[in-house]
Amino acid sequence: MTERDWRPRYIQVAEDLRDQILRGELPPGSAMLSETDLSERYDLSRTSVRNAIKQLKDWGLVRSKQGQGTYVRAPRQRVERRHTERYQWEKDRARLGEPERGETGATEFDTGLDLPDLEFRAKYTIVEADDNLAGIFGVPAGTALLKREYWTSTRSEDSPLSLVRSYLLRDIVAANPDLMDEAKEPWPGGTQNQLYTLGIELETIVDRLTARPPLPEEADVLDIEVGVSVLVLHKTSIDTQGRVVEFSEVILPGDRTEIVHVTTLERWA
Amino acid sequence: MTERDWRPRYIQVAEDLRDQILRGELPPGSAMLSETDLSERYDLSRTSVRNAIKQLKDWGLVRSKQGQGTYVRAPRQRVERRHTERYQWEKDRARLGEPERGETGATEFDTGLDLPDLEFRAKYTIVEADDNLAGIFGVPAGTALLKREYWTSTRSEDSPLSLVRSYLLRDIVAANPDLMDEAKEPWPGGTQNQLYTLGIELETIVDRLTARPPLPEEADVLDIEVGVSVLVLHKTSIDTQGRVVEFSEVILPGDRTEIVHVTTLERWA
């Protein structure tokens, strides 16, 4: 710690401990020093030591177990997501035969993970559009929607990589009863193939990305501390006739997600 | 509040108050009920009431003033950012004459705000590359870098819309002394024109986006509560010869930033 650091001492201590964790000097699973020992080592009050540990928890680096002290968390598998490249890739595959569509799922493309590593759950329900969803689809509030919830995890970790809520207009989807059946998931070729079975071709996908603290139930399901942020992706899919045909909200844990976008510029030469 | 909500009461109360704020029943600037009054109205302990108010602060919706109670914050101007569209737009303008380049800045393009609404500050320093930056540029640690820090605000609000730290290799930039002078900012045409004066043409820009809680100094500068998340954009600019020529880190306040990306898909027909 430099002498001229003007920030609160507990932050400087938290950063020092973070450095030790990130450099591997405090390996995953190891116990942190007790509050008393940290207090002595850093010549800091107990309150400040508690604040420093709170900060480390908020960064998702340590975890306290009831009656067992504080431990360094195993680093979570970091996942790169390349949503925008995926959309055209998914469209290119939407008209292929099922065997080819079944070879690779969208999540594998997004994340670079292999199918045997992934666990996938889906739940379908019928809901009434609230004002917000009604506005997005341009339908009256109360219109029936098919709500599809997805959880995708790696087999090596319990907590999902993402929470997805996807909405489709029920009356449109009902034309293909297979699309109303959650047991048909994971669907080879994903949503763009599902829409293709209804004669729908996507033309534009609008992504809106924000970040916020997780809601308590999101922190619970994603197994993150409440101080870890989530990325919230709102994806609106518009067909070739300009109709909004799907809206989805994707919640991604901020401590393990990196959204990557590569822009290739036109050459001057 | 529904009877079957299984979450802690303080969260339900916080959400009820949030709804009142978002619906305008508690307008900006209005005082919240006292802890005692809230405790009575919701039949909740003082501790739970404090937790509910803490949650509202963490959402950036209320603010406590020393000795004056808790007030509803004015909603902050929300800014849509379209980074990826901007990169090609900036490149198309990089070879134009200064008058044309000076007409519109990149921030205005990104945010849709007009130049008279924006305040802009820049600070240049020379720093030594740490291991991380050395790895990004593929140079030895300790190599001299030009570090450029930017703060952009709207005139109607004090707090910046973004914090930017941009790094360039000093020995390359030094060929044009104007590029070493912070007083030349805001530079008409931005970084891509600056690089053009050095004979450098960008070909690829890699964006990596994550979310995390703000560091205390970021929360301070951006004027956000520590419970508001920040979006962190790491942008790596690569020239036509495959060299990394610029790296920047952009910190964006999560309560007012929406990163928008529109994907137009190729038609099947």
Structural features, described:
The structure is a homodimer of 269-residue chains. Chain A is of the alpha+beta class. Chain A folds into 2 domains: 9-72, Winged helix-like DNA-binding domain superfamily/Winged helix DNA-binding domain (Arc Repressor Mutant, subunit A); 79-259, Chorismate lyase. Helices cover 31% and strands 30% of the residues of chain A. In chain A, strands 4-5-6-9-8-7 form a 6-stranded antiparallel β-sheet. A two-stranded antiparallel sheet of chain A has the order 1-2. The radius of gyration of chain A is 23 Å and the shape is elongated. Chains A, B: Keywords: DNA-binding, Transcription, Transcription regulation. Chains A, B: Pfam families: GntR, UTRA. Chains A, B: Residues 91-103 have a biased composition (Basic and acidic residues). Chains A, B: Residues 91-110 are annotated as: Disordered.
CATH topology of the largest domain in chain A: Chorismate lyase
Shape summary of chain A: elongated
Oligomer: homodimer
Largest interface, C-beta within 8 A? A-B, 46 and 47 residues
Give the count of helical stretches of chain A. 10
- State the major sheet of chain A: 6 strands, antiparallel
Q: CATH homologous superfamily name of the largest domain in chain A? A: Chorismate lyase-like
In which range does the helix fraction of chain A lie? Answer: 25-40%
Query: In terms of structural class, how would the helical and strand content of chain A be classed?
Result: alpha+beta
Sheet with the most strands: spatial strand order of chain A: 4-5-6-9-8-7
Order of helices and strands of chain A: HHHEEEHHHEHEEHHEHEEE
Number of strands of chain A: 10
What is the radius of gyration of chain A computed over CA atoms, rounded to a whole number of angstroms?
A: 23 Å
State the name of the first-level CATH class of the largest domain in chain A: Alpha Beta
The CATH level-2 architecture of the largest domain in chain A is identified as 3-Layer(aba) Sandwich
Mean pLDDT of chain A: 86
Give the termini distance of chain A in whole angstroms: 50 Å
Give the strand content of chain A: 25-35%
